Amino acid sequence: MNLTIPRLAAALMLIAAGCSQPAPPTAPKASATPVLSTSETILGQPFDYPAADAHVTAVIVTLPPGASTGLHRHDVPLFGYMLEGELTVAYFDAADSVTEHTYLPDDALMEAIGTPHDGRNTGTGAVRILAVFIGADGIPNTVKEE
Predict the structure, then answer these.
(1) Is residue 120, in this structure, part of any structural domain at all?
(2) Which contiguous run of DSSP H or E holds residue 60?
(3) What is the domain-level CATH number for residue 127?
(4) What is the per-residue pLDDT across 52-81, written as a single tens digit (0 to 9) for each?
């Protein structure tokens, strides 16, 4: 069998083309990005889970520009995640001193427990917050203050 170099090259290319298979597509991989890991609230309070039958509630709170949550407190742990907007929260201690925190999209927090506070939309668009209450049967997630 006398093959010239061009014929040999062509034959090898045909063999290679018949043997090669396209690479299988790479499956996308899952990822996990931590948004919060803490054992304290935004005010540095340690928190415990309620000593009753557990009950988790997740809500999305929406505040239009200029709106306020009204003065309230939470007696159960609350994880909050800012989806959009700008929220400024005033926290009131027993001496009526005020501490303010401003939250922006992708901020995460463990909300203060038992501390009266009022959140207001200080941005130009809507505020949307994912709020996850780690509550218990018979204990309200939110208590309005006067």
Answers:
(1) yes
(2) strand 54-63
(3) 2.60.120.10
(4) 899 999 999 999 999 999 999 999 999 999
